Model the fold of this input.
Amino acid sequence: MAQPPGFVDPAHPHLVCKLHKSLYGLKQAPRAWNERFTTFLSTLGFTNTYSDSSLFVKQVHSKIVILLLYVDDIIITGTASNAIQDVIDSLTVEFKIKDLGDLHYFLGIQISKTKTGLFLSQTKYIQDLLLKTEMNESKPCDTPCLPYTRLLKDDGQSFGNPTLYRSIVRALQYLTFTRPVIAFSVHQVCQFMQNQMVAHFTAVKRILRYLKGTMHLGINYHRGDLTLKAFSDADWAGDPNDRRSTTGFVAFLGSNPVSWSSKKKQTVSRSSTEAEYRALSTTTAELDWIKQLLMFLHVPISPAPVLFCDNLSAIALSFNPVQHQKTKHIEIDVHFVRERVATHQLFVQFVSSREQFADILTKGLSAPLFRTHCDNLMLNLSKQEIAGGC
Done:
């Protein structure tokens, strides 16, 4: 806590103003509000976990109530309707809140109930983005990037409007929450935020053209089994600018994708085996986090998740405890995959490249293969109208 410039008392330089309540615009306001709200939740019997500090759970006998907090937006759900209503009543007494009823729209994400589960999309967000960029009348395309093509850092002329470029790319990043198939394309254009070329902006417009033709797509979440599995992939030395590998993974709970990522590694891998092995390590860490989160939510899962990889050498390395000449330089923390396999907390299995779901997160694909992986990631249309709002 620090006194604002110009208000420091020379006789008491260490003192600060005492606020009766937190105000918007102050740097301390978000922290003060979060402490105020979480303290009150603890009095209602809620606990939170280190896996996600914004997620709170209250257990009422055999029932649970789950509360998710994002600044001052709240989602409440659970298995006991009476307990949920009691929490809402308690929050209403303590804070000035507005109950909006069933969940339809949250932070730009549209939620629609279906007969089998939930449908999540960002149709309205895409429409607003296309209007903002004047791409609402553009011609749609089949894929968000050219197949098996990478962007070069010095490719043609410099783009003259860096503010526009950064604004669009940042907006596209938020779309990866419900559109995992554009994660790799967005990951590519994000690498040129400091020095954009015309070719880079052309790639951005291709993503927008793809969204123009698929704005009503979203992820369908269905009821089903609770087995945890993941697909891990790496495009070894795929970046022509620095020869670093791109890692991609997608984790499934049953048939529903719950976590995905497309990210370039910070170091250069000496072989495809090393690149794939590092990808296994990244995915294993994500699976550990998901397991902790599900345990906190009292969701029963299979004791050992299955991790699929399309590189036999990397799979062998996860089973073999012997240090080889070509792998002795790999950091010790990466080898915790081997420990999980040895203790039967993780099973690593081979999957063919054709059935590697994470392939779409590491490289641009041809249109037929791209559409196949879209289906694998449960990306399709809802059978109902999407309920949204502003």
